[in-house]
Design a protein that fits this description.
6-stranded mixed beta sheet, 7-stranded mixed beta sheet, about 700 residues, about 5% helix
Length: about 700
């Protein structure tokens, strides 16, 4: 039975421990941030040097480009009015001096076919800057709070460099089970590693695309990434260069290429304000200060549904999803971006924990460019031409956000590569990059939608944060210098030939039937309640486990550490039919492999009892901007999503890859990229033999 979220007051049927949780806090109090004026700080521009790009420091194995990274705590001024720089965790590359690290710094730009090798030193302090829930798997009492690992999201890498949840390492020489004693799995790459270090090797055998790397340590992924352990990784190649030469496509570091990394955060307010908003915060985090990051640390029955009975809630408790009250772009709160009447390439990454985005351009009004845009959009600005996703270039450009065109939707973990044309926008114009995607998606709650006039978010006032609909202000300046030649992309066959042939031929607007002679594996997305009565998301097969997990009936969900069920052979091809029995759209991310979306199909959700779903309609084709390769796929409630994938491992490597000491195979995972779902417990092993 589906377990839907409930945003009303808890009923008297809840356990006594639940009723005592956070009784002082009004239901809208997830908005902790002080009011910050919007559009007063420029966006940090990667191509103009505003975000730090890592530099190679020497040669690595077999001609690889070697990098050195340190995981550190540092402070960064994310808005001019914040009284203190915000304390963050992040990556400091060796070309950046100690004390000069910036949020989202350490971007790596790699060439296809030239491997990258990274030595990572964990220099994080022993106490986390976010409260740690010790009831989650992997975060139990005794486990260090400064554990970390690095996952190259979208990378085709050996499992020893995949940064799986159990490959964590801390500054004192402790390692997770999959890393082996003394970090043995890392030492097959670098036998000279010191305690507190890990080694990663990325072959970069994929075509041009925007990836990102972020933390993946079990039990604390959601708070490590939120604290700042995330940044971009860009692969370029000869095919992308040919598009630049033939079609004037801006290259990866062209000044007309703008990287937009979106995050939603909440900032700690003054001590006096926090006494009203969250009087327990400084007791739990005595070293915190105004301007630091705030994250929900109690489970509010007034906000989240709680199962009857269960154990008393822990003093620090995970939540089903995090939705911040303040949007950052490239690490700056509500910034502005200056452009000229030219064509630009926008490369977007949704790095939010749980918030979906549907960004589009609208014209601003009023002298500050915010009037009448905060509650609802104004006249539409330029549409987008999407040329790529996280899997590289699309087979053909896809039009979005124009008249009678679909809105661009970017789920957590997804990327969108876009062409935006400002040539017809008059100089002096101001536009807003606007998003009003429901949170959680697709049904949403007004509690998570911060804009002036919303009675559920009274902290939002015109021109200031809290605000989540106005992502970025764009100011169109007069043209300087010569105009650029027009970008003229191929209308078909734009896919990157260096990535090899597709597994199936996709016809725009036409769903693919199941290929013959390809094994089909049916899997499920599930909701239940954990032993504390908290809402939990899980992956499973279409057969209930024995013994069952959770108290949903029937319970298909399996815990992450349960016996692996997705065990495949190297080089094999499978179709996965993934049945979403929950109320949410889940962005499902596959480590190691890229997939193609074959179709979606509605089914009778309430009647589903395992086995073949009771389908309620015909096959539906993937969206035009979902064609080609993907590695993060949106899976909607009440639908079966079918994807096809081949389980190839990286080719010849300059070291031998041992089996995982934990699973005795090449150990990867697949999971929801809503980070609170992944952590609790929507992740399962993917073992390649």
């Amino acid at each position: 039975m589906i377990k839907r979220r409930n945003f009303i007051k808890a009923s008297t049927s809840l356990g006594a421990g639940a009723l005592l949780a956070n009784p002082w806090q009004p239901i809208w109090a997830y908005s902790q941030s002080q009011a910050l004026a919007k559009f007063v700080a420029p966006m940090r521009d990667v191509t103009a040097g505003g975000v730090q790009i890592a530099a190679s420091d020497r040669a690595g194995l077999n001609g690889a480009q070697h990098y050195s990274l340190s995981l550190e705590q540092f402070s960064d001024q994310l808005h001019p009015s914040l009284p203190n720089p915000t304390r963050l965790w992040g990556y400091r590359p060796s070309n950046v001096s100690s004390g000069s690290a910036k949020h989202l710094g350490g971007i790596i730009v790699a060439n296809r076919g030239t491997a990258v090798q990274i030595t990572v030193t964990n220099a994080l302090p022993p106490t986390h800057i976010i409260p740690v829930d010790r009831t989650l798997t992997g975060a139990e009492v005794g486990q260090p709070e400064n554990r970390a690992t690095i996952h190259l999201h979208g990378g085709l890498v050996p499992w020893v460099s995949d940064g799986g949840p159990h490959t964590w390492f801390d500054p004192n020489g402790r390692y997770g089970a999959s890393a082996g004693l003394g970090g043995a799995s890392y030492k097959v790459i670098n036998s000279a590693l010191l305690p507190g270090q890990a080694e990663y090797y990325y072959p970069n055998l994929q075509g041009a695309r925007m990836l990102w790397y972020h933390d993946h340590a079990i039990g604390i992924t959601r708070i490590n990434v939120y604290a700042g352990l995330a940044t971009a990784y860009v692969i370029t190649d000869a095919y992308e260069a040919s598009l630049t030469a033939a079609y004037n496509l801006p290259g990866p570091l062209d000044l007309r290429t703008k990287y937009l990394v979106f995050q939603d955060k909440i900032f700690v307010d003054s001590a006096a304000a926090m006494a009203l908003k969250d009087p327990t915060w400084f007791a739990k985090m005595p070293n915190s200060r105004q301007g630091d990051l705030w994250y929900p640390h109690v489970y509010e029955p007034a906000r989240w549904k709680l199962g009857a009975g269960g154990l008393p809630l822990p003093p620090v408790s995970c939540i089903p999803e995090f939705f911040g009250d303040t949007i950052l772009v490239n690490g700056t709160v509500a910034p502005f971006l200056d452009v000229e009447p030219r064509q630009y390439r926008f490369r977007m990454l949704n790095a939010c924990n749980a918030r979906f985005l549907n960004p589009r351009l609208v014209y601003a009004q009023g002298p500050t460019g915010v009037a009448a845009t905060e509650a609802s959009p104004n006249a539409a600005g330029p549409a987008f031409i999407q040329i790529g996703t996280e899997g590289g270039f699309l087979p053909a450009p896809a039009m979005v956000n124009g008249p009678k065109q679909p809105l661009l939707l970017v789920a957590p973990g997804e990327r969108a590569d876009l062409i935006v044309d400002f040539r017809a926008v008059p100089a002096g114009s101001m536009l807003i990059l606007y998003s009003d995607a429901p949170a959680p998606f697709p049904k949403g709650s007004a509690l998570n939608d911060y804009y002036p006039g919303n009675p559920k978010t009274p902290t939002s006032t015109p021109g200031f944060t809290s605000a989540t609909r106005t992502l970025l202000q764009i100011r169109v300046k007069p043209l300087t210098g010569l105009a650029d030649p027009a970008i003229t992309l191929p209308v078909t066959a734009m896919q990157n030939p260096l990535d090899g042939p597709f597994l199936v031929i996709q016809v725009p607007g036409v769903p693919n039937a199941l290929p013959t002679a390809i094994p089909v594996r049916r899997l499920t997305l599930n909701e239940a309640f954990d032993t504390y009565g908290r809402l939990i998301q899980m992956l499973g097969t279409d057969t209930p486990p024995v013994p069952p997990v959770g108290n949903a009936a029937p319970a298909f969900g399996r815990a992450y550490d349960a016996l692996a069920t997705e065990v495949v052979n190297r080089g094999s091809t499978e179709v996965w039919e993934i049945v979403n029995t929950t109320a949410d759209t889940h962005p499902m991310h596959f480590h190691l492999v890229n997939v193609q979306v074959l179709s979606r199909q509605a089914f009778a959700l309430k009647a589903y009892a395992g086995g073949v779903p009771n389908y309620q309609g015909p096959l539906m084709a993937p969206d035009l901007n979902e064609l080609g390769w993907k590695e993060t796929v949106r899976m909607n409630p009440g639908e079966v999503t079918r994807v096809i994938m081949r389980f190839d491992l990286p080719g010849v490597l300059p070291f031998s890859v041992p089996p995982s000491p934990r699973t005795n195979g090449n150990e990867y995972v697949w999971h929801c990229h809503i980070l609170e779902h992944e952590e609790h417990d929507m992740m399962r092993p993917l073992i390649v033999n």
